[in-house]
Specification:
The complex is a heterodimer. Chain A is built from three helices and no strands. Chain A is mostly helical. Chain A has a single domain, classed as Helix Hairpins (Orthogonal Bundle), CATH 1.10.287. In chain A, helix 1 runs antiparallel to helix 2. In chain B, strands 1-2 form a two-stranded antiparallel ribbon. Classes of the chains: A mainly alpha, B mainly alpha. The interface between A and B is large, with 46 and 54 residues.
């Protein structure tokens, strides 16, 4: 049980790092990695909670574990989708960046049909 | 005897429809992938029409039964199992959404016709599958009764919505989709973090159980704040709206209509569920004022930027940013210390009605803009002269949608704003009334710019690039008229919103 605070603070640090990079880094690939870091922090938090909430007869509460598995699948799918979008963006000849929000209005024929 | 009563209850309410509303679209998506591009449109139509029928039956059951429908999935009761619930809110939103999606589907038939083309193409295939997926995910959001089911539903909605943004495959739209996806992922992971914290302190995800257990304490508060920020990023409330205009303006018209009218309402609906149903009485007046202030800023910012737009679709997209602001004005009005439960529920009714009017009106406006683009080959507002003469039905649909957004009687927008304003006045919150009136003025401003251009005679004969099938114009007009007539729901089915909202009456009064 002594390890719980350690894991909890690891989770918090992962979330903090991920959140910081997700907001500040302009590179899409790094943003995707940051999202995964943030996600790992949340999953770890689920693990800590699973142990903390556990009823007496279990080592750990199975409900957060089930949710973590679902969330991992979702995060994996999201990552795959984001990476696919980045590679399509490069194929379509665009720079792989989502930066410069202000200057970047879609032009007059921006795909509207 | 009780057995017989339960049986007749089940026959009347048909709770199994709830699970069908989610399973049917999912089956449709899987079938479409197996069947391939030729049959996708047919499958989508069957699924969407059955979805409409199901939504109407659920609405009927909730309205006439006067109580919420529940379905316990697999016989596993909460807190361990998953329970689907249809109360008045979800029934009304579901039905409105089903109508909007069906009409947009009819409208999209010309753009994404998968039958006639010799070779299968990618974009019709993706569009119809994602349209069905959006309807399924939205149904899941409306019916879900616990936080984790709703997390999965939110993610499904995001995954269905992002491809709709970049259907054309150009670099700009892919970049817009990318930005949307990143905002949405940030939002969903914050939501998930909040879910984890809530489970950590209450060991449950179920709304009904949570609403009885939760009380104001740091962990719960942090969880709720995280979830709200995440949902606001997905709803594109100012200042988290950056992704919305390029994403909604760059998509094909039918996709824009769905994204702008339906998809943003999904995460908004979750904010409502969270604060009104799961954590009733937890939103402090200060927090509610903050949400309202963000809403007011959204109205001011969105409207001012909309006034400066040169392209019709971007104008409509910025108008969505502003209209989303209205949705959040109901929080300070409903959660004011002076508000009685009746006034809170009036504000809630107004807010939900605003969501429904925006759904219908905005879909109509985006479809009209798409038709104008198809006919003229551009959507520059400055060159719209003569459009009203060349495309009277389309411009009428656009104008009626605008009437609803401005909030003129008898539109749904009028009734919504009237309810919100009345609740605001009765609880002595004058600033929000001023905000709403100013917002209406702004809205009339940008509607006037577009309509005055369109009504001007053009110098030479307006050459239309393509003939428009009448049914497409009729589709836009149908939704516009629906938004106009939505005001008349006050005469009847509006009471349905009270069904199953018993928990929110526990709000501080």
């Amino acid at each position: 049980m002594n390890a719980l605070p350690l894991f909890a603070s690891c989770a918090a640090m992962l979330m903090g790092l991920g959140l910081y990079a997700l907001i500040t880094d302009p590179e899409p690939l790094r943003k995707i990695l940051a999202f995964n870091l943030l996600g790992s922090g949340v999953f770890l938090a689920f693990g800590v909670i699973s142990r903390r909430v556990a009823a007496t007869e279990f080592e750990g509460d199975p409900v957060p574990q089930a949710m973590t598995i679902t969330a991992i699948v979702v995060a994996f799918a999201a990552t795959a989708m984001a990476v696919a979008l980045v590679s399509r963006l490069v194929e379509a000849g665009g720079r792989a960046t989502v930066a410069s929000e202000a200057s970047e209005e879609p032009d007059a024929d921006g795909g509207a049909s | 005897m009780p057995g017989v009563a339960a049986l007749s209850d089940a026959a009347m309410g048909q709770p199994s429809l709830l699970v069908l509303a989610i399973v049917l679209p999912v089956t449709g998506v899987l079938l479409s992938i197996v069947a391939g591009g030729r049959y996708v449109e047919a499958i989508a139509f069957v699924v969407l029409l059955s979805g409409l029928v199901i939504a109407i039956f659920i609405f009927d059951g909730v309205w006439r039964g006067g109580r919420e429908l529940t379905y316990v999935v697999g016989g596993w009761r909460p807190p361990l199992g998953i329970m689907l619930r249809a109360d008045g809110l979800s029934a009304l939103m579901m039905s409105t959404m089903a109508v909007v999606i069906c009409v947009v589907g009819v409208f999209a038939h010309a753009d994404f016709n998968s039958r006639l083309e010799a070779a299968e193409t990618r974009s019709p295939f993706v569009f119809w599958i994602m349209l069905v997926a959006v309807s399924g995910a939205m149904n899941m959001i409306f019916l879900g009764g616990d936080l984790f089911t709703l997390y999965v539903a939110l993610e499904l909605l995001t995954f269905a919505a992002v491809p709709l943004v970049c259907l054309s495959g150009s670099a700009e739209t892919i970049r817009a989709a990318m930005r949307y996806l990143l905002f949405a992922l940030l939002g969903s992971i914050l939501y998930l973090g909040g879910t984890a914290l809530l489970y950590g302190s209450h060991a449950t995800m179920d709304f009904a159980v949570l609403s009885q257990q939760a009380h104001l304490e740091p962990a719960t508060l942090i969880a709720a704040v995280l979830m709200t920020i995440g949902l606001l990023a997905k709803t594109a409330l100012f200042p988290l709206h950056l992704w919305l205009p390029p994403a909604h303006a760059g998509a094909p018209a039918a996709a824009s209509a769905i994204l702008s009218s339906v998809v943003v309402k999904g995460s908004f609906f979750l904010v409502v569920r969270l604060w009104f149903d799961a954590l009733p009485g937890m939103l402090t007046p200060a927090g509610a004022q903050l949400l309202g202030a963000l809403g007011a800023s959204a109205i001011a910012f969105g409207s001012v930027v909309a006034l400066q737009q040169k392209r019709l679709k971007l104008l409509i997209a910025y108008s969505t940013v502003a209209q989303i602001g209205y949705l959040f004005l109901m929080f300070p009005i409903a959660f004011n210390a002076a508000a009685t439960p009746a006034q809170s529920s009036e504000a809630l009714t107004g807010g939900m009605l605003q969501a429904m009017s925006h759904m219908t009106a905005k879909a109509a406006m985006f479809m009209a803009a798409g038709l104008i683009y198809t006919a003229l080959g551009h959507d520059r507002i400055a060159d719209l002269g003569g459009t009203a003469r060349a495309l009277p039905m389309t411009m009428l649909a656009f104008a009626i949608g605008g009437v609803c957004l401005i909030g003129l009687p008898p539109s749904g927008g009028f009734l919504a704003k009237w309810l919100l304003m009345r609740a605001a006045v009765e609880t002595g919150q004058w600033p929000w009334v001023v905000v709403m009136l100013a917002g209406g003025l702004f809205t009339s401003g940008y509607m006037f710019i577009v309509l005055s251009r369109a009504l001007q005679p053009s110098g030479e004969f307006l050459k239309l690039g393509a003939a428009l099938p009448k049914y497409r114009e009729a589709a836009a007009l149908t939704l516009a008229l629906l938004s106009l007539l939505l005001g008349f729901v006050a005469l009847g089915p509006l009471d349905v919103l009270q069904v199953g909202s018993g928990t929110m009456m526990a709000a501080p009064g």
